């Protein structure tokens, strides 16, 4: 199996006036294609910062990062936007759906930003909509759906572009435990279908649904299994 992610000695500092906060410390992380990895750590340990690095949403100060063999540390901002759109499917705790768009339109967003036609985008997302059982909700607005349904829409949106990795930050954090378990079962199913998943969580019970767990404590990673 090839590594879809290779991080070598990543360091990230936040500048706060004269102070510099060392938030990620010599992070080394390899993730194989097809893995389902949980990154587990308490609040303030650097999970979201690491997610932003993996997702190419923010820059690190030192180190090398290869995403699907692309040297992210050498990539200019403009190209990075395309890489982000093509390689990463983001899933957030609070879904981040566009409230004025229908379910269908929300799911199509990553395809439309790639510049294909509306008709092509419609066709390309049909299978994903079926897979996630959203076909009866396509004309609903996000506010007309339950939290679990909204997260399904967000997962569909993350999947449609066939990204190299699904990157989820506390994906069950806003859901009751029953609905959270449904989302985790769905991740398991998507992983069984071949999708690479990285899930960030503070909850060991949630992390246990992954194939592997790494711990992050005070900006440092350590392997658990
Ligand atoms: N934009 C920022 N500027 C300054 N400090 C930040 C910023 N984002 C996060 N931090 C700090 O970095 C540390 C890690 O934060 P974060 O990655 O959000 O942790 P987690 O997601 O594990 O709760 C915390 O001490 C936080 O206060
Ligand atoms: Mg966080």
UniProtKB/TrEMBL annotation:
Q: Which residue intervals define the domain ABC transporter in the entry?
A: 5-224
Keywords assigned: ATP-binding, Nucleotide-binding, Transport
Q: Enumerate the PROSITE patterns for this protein.
A: ABC_TRANSPORTER_1, ABC_TRANSPORTER_2
Coiled-coil intervals, chain numbering = none
Q: Name one GO molecular function term.
A: ATP binding
Query: Cross-referenced Pfam families, in alphabetical order?
Result: ABC_tran
Q: Does this entry carry the keyword DNA repair?
A: no
Q: Which InterPro entries match?
A: AAA+_ATPase (IPR003593), ABC_transporter-like_ATP-bd (IPR003439), ABC_transporter-like_CS (IPR017871), MacB-like_ATP-bd (IPR017911), P-loop_NTPase (IPR027417)
CDD domains associated with the record: ABC_MJ0796_LolCDE_FtsE
Which stretches are transmembrane? none
Q: Which GO terms describe its cellular component?
A: membrane protein complex
Q: What does the sequence similarity comment in the record state about its family?
A: Belongs to the ABC transporter superfamily.
Name recorded for this polypeptide: ABC transporter ATP-binding protein
Q: What is the lineage of its organism?
A: Bacteria, Bacillati, Bacillota, Clostridia, Lachnospirales
